From TrEMBL:
Name of protein: Binding-protein-dependent transport systems inner membrane component
Domain of life, source organism: Bacteria
Membrane topology category: Multi-pass membrane protein
PROSITE patterns with a match to the protein in the record: ABC_TM1 (PS50928)
One GO cellular component, as annotated: plasma membrane
The family this protein is said to belong to: Belongs to the binding-protein-dependent transport system permease family.
SUPFAM superfamilies for this protein: MetI-like (SSF161098)
Organism name: Actinosynnema mirum (strain ATCC 29888 / DSM 43827 / JCM 3225 / NBRC 14064 / NCIMB 13271 / NRRL B-12336 / IMRU 3971 / 101)
Ranges of residues in domain ABC transmembrane type-1: 100-311
Transmembrane segments: 7-25, 102-127, 148-168, 188-209, 254-275, 295-318
Subcellular location(s) per record: Cell membrane; Membrane
Length: 326
């Protein structure tokens, strides 16, 4: 129990540090985002409107930086991430909530599938090293070295185009209204198939390699030899002894992958014009939309922290050596 409390305290401190850094970064960037918004509106604003914008975005010059900081923490506590410059006057929380389901649906599903399939194949390949299963290694090594976006461009060039089953961009057909009917769901699945396969092929290859290497390492351990000597079946030794211990390093990598789901696969979403958080972040950087960048970075940071916390709990459950007192 003390280990869990220590981890909670550590992650709470890290979350506070992330919030603090997230507050100061926009204020250290040269330029005045409010003036940029005024320029975008062709200067058609009164002095009172300009002052209201400074207060709205938490950049009013009459209050000190400390006052702005505590006001920012209060806003975060209530879920207020500010207003987006790009989609003004839409709140950042609404902009993010619009892109988050698309990112989680695409990157989340492919990350989990890639981990499960890659880990299972890596377990078999590592356990049966020296057999024909090892022919999978050169292929996975090549695929894991290819960036997501390059595979995406290749997939569009080879599989998408006029008359093709696979759309080259978007999340659903133009003109459809998002609703749970079969036509809309089918369109979403068809549009998400190519980017999902792009992410799945590349990520699964990495899991296969890492799990295969760990299986080769643990196969020579004494506890595996003892399990064989007990007369246990080969499958039980592979799954219950070798794979369980070889899985531990992959748990950390999987937790990081889950955390970065919120950020999306930036270049893949850009290549396929997929309306997730990755594409939103690209648009925010291009438009110098500091509140939106700030909100997305905060979501990514907190997601990674939460995923790592869950990974620590998984370590406590899987590895008895981590369950120590004092």
């Amino acid at each position: 129990m003390s280990q869990v409390l220590k981890r909670i305290a550590f992650y709470a401190f890290t979350a506070w540090a992330a919030l603090t850094i997230n507050f100061f970064i926009p204020r250290l960037i040269p330029g005045d985002p409010v003036q940029a918004l005024i320029t975008k509106s062709r200067g058609q604003m009164t002095t009172e409107a300009v002052e209201s914008l400074y207060i709205l975005f938490g950049l009013d010059k009459e209050s000190s930086l400390v006052e702005q900081y505590f006001r920012y923490l209060g806003q975060i506590a209530t879920g207020d991430l500010g207003m987006s410059f790009t989609f003004f006057p839409t709140p950042v929380s609404e902009v993010i909530s619009g892109g988050l389901p698309w990112t989680v649906g695409l990157v989340g599903v492919t990350t989990v599938l890639g981990f499960l399939l890659g880990t299972a194949l890596g377990t078999v390949v590592g356990w049966r090293r020296g057999s024909l299963a090892d022919l999978l290694i050169p292929v996975t090594t090549f695929l894991s070295s290819i960036p997501y976006f390059w595979l995406g461009l290749l997939a569009i060039a080879l599989l998408a185009g006029p008359g093709s089953f696979f759309p080259a961009s978007g999340a659903y057909e133009i003109g459809l209204v998002p609703n749970p009917d079969l036509e809309f769901v089918g369109s979403v699945l068809r549009h998400g198939l190519l980017p999902a396969l792009t992410i799945l092929v590349s990520s699964m290859s990495g899991w296969i390699l890492s799990m295969r290497n760990m299986m080769v390492t643990v196969s020579s351990e004494d506890y595996v030899t003892v399990a064989h000597a007990k007369g246990l079946t080969d499958r039980r030794v592979m799954v219950g002894y070798a794979a369980r211990n070889a899985l531990l390093p992959n748990v950390s990598g999987f937790a990081l992958s889950l955390g970065f789901i919120v950020g999306g696969t930036l270049l893949v979403e850009i290549v396929f014009s997929y309306p997730g958080l990755g594409l939103l972040l690209f648009q925010a950087v291009g438009a110098k939309d500091y509140p939106l960048m700030q909100g997305i970075f905060l979501m990514i940071t907190l997601s990674v922290l939460a995923a790592n916390f869950l990974a620590d709990l998984a370590y406590l459950a899987l590895d008895p050596r981590t369950r120590r007192e004092g």
